[in-house]
Amino acid sequence: MILKINEIKSSFRYFRPETLEEATDFLMRRGSESKILAGGTDLLVAIRSGDLRARYVVDVSRLDELRKVTVDREKLTIGSALTFSEIIENPIVQEFAPVLVRACSRVGSLQIRNTGTLGGNVGNASPAADSIPAMMIHDARVLLTNAESERDESLGSFIVGPYKTNLATGFLISGFSLKIWPEGFRFAYNRIARRRCLAISRVGAAAMAVLDENGKVTRMRLSLSSVSPQPVRMKIAEECLVGQIPDSRLILEASQAVTQEMVHLSGERPSFVYKKPAVQGLTTKTLEEIFFDREEF
Question: Domain 64-179 - what CATH class?
Answer without folding.
Answer: alpha beta
